[in-house]
Amino acid sequence: MVLGNNIRDRFENFRRRRSQPRHLQQLQMDLLAESTLDPSYITLIVGSCIIATFGLLSNSTAVIIGAMIIAPLMLPIRGLAFGALEGNFTLFRKGVIAVVVGTLLAVAIAYILGMFVRLPSYGSEILARSEPTLLDLGIAVAAGGISGYAKAQPKISGSLAGTAIAVALMPPICVIGLGLSQGNWSLSLGATLLYLTNLLGITLSCMLTFLIAGYTSLSRAHKPLMWTLALTAVLLLPLGVSFARLVRQGQLEISLRRALLNRTVTFQRLQLLNSNTNWLTKPPEVRLSVRAKKAVTPRQVQLLEEFIEREMGQPFTLIFEVGQVEEIRSADPTP
C-alpha cells in the first residue's frame, strides 16, 4: 500500500512538472527543431536508406540493423504527434512534411538501387516485410510509447527512441521501392501496409504518452486521438486477416513436415536438415535441405507432391537441396 502511494505521488509530481509553461515551451522548441527539414535530416535519410537497401538485397540482418540505428524518421513523427495534440499547426505541418519527404526520398533511392542491382529474386529479409500482422502493430505501439517517454524524461537518452523506432520504419520503406523496381505490386503493397501500421501505431502511442505525462489536457487531445484511433482501426481488418493466415501457415508447415517424415517411404532414407516455405508463390514452394546416400529423382519428387496435395488439400512445390553422403573407411588390413 505504501509502495503504491509512493509511486502515485511520484507520478503526480512528474505530471505537475511537465504541465509547467517552461517545460511545455522547451518541449515544443525541441520537437520543432527535430521536425525541421534540413540538410542533416536529408543526409541521414539518404545514408540510412542506402545501407538498409543494400542490407535487404544482401539478406544481411547485421547491415539492416546498422541502418536502423541512424534512421531519423522517428523525430518528426514525435513532432507531428505533439503538434496534433496541442493544435500547434506549425509543428504538425513541419512534422508531416519531414515524414512525407523522407519517405518519398527513401522509396526513390531504393527503387533506383533495385533497378541497378536487378536481383532475380529477393531473400527472406525482404519477404518478411511484405505480410504485416497484428504483432507488428503491437511492436509499433510499444516502441512509440518508449519514444514518447524518452522525450518526456530527459534522463533517458534521446537516441534510444530513434534507435528503437527505426527498426520498424526504414526497412519497409526500402522494400516498397525494391518491389516497385521489380514490378512486384503485392510486395510493395504489403510493405506499404507495414509502414502505415508502424507509422500510425507509433503516432498513437506517442500521443497517449504525451497525454499521460501531462503535456496536454484530455479535452484538447480528444479529437486528434479519435482520428488517429479511427485510422489505426481501419488497419485492423487486413492485419487480422494476415495474422490468421500466419497462424494457418504455421500449422500447415508443421503438418507438412510430419507427413513427409512419418508417412513417406522416401524420407525413411533421407535426413532432413532444414525446411523453408515461400508462401508468396502460387503454389507455395517448400525448399527442403536433406542428406542422402542415393540421389533423389524427379519422379520421387512428383510422387511426394501428389501425396502432399492429397493430405493437405492444396498443392505445394517441393524443391530438394540434396547433400550426398559418402561412406569412406580405411582399407582392410592385409593378413
TrEMBL record:
Superkingdom of the source species: Bacteria
Organism the protein comes from: Mojavia pulchra JT2-VF2
InterPro entries per the UniProt record, alphabetical = DUF389
Quick check: keyword Transmembrane in the entry? Answer: yes
Write out the transmembrane intervals: 39-57, 64-85, 91-113, 156-180, 192-213, 225-247
Question: Pfam family example for this protein?
Answer: DUF389
Q: Which UniProt keywords apply?
A: Membrane, Transmembrane, Transmembrane helix
Lineage in the entry?
A: Bacteria, Bacillati, Cyanobacteriota, Cyanophyceae, Nostocales
**What protein name applies here?**
DUF389 domain-containing protein
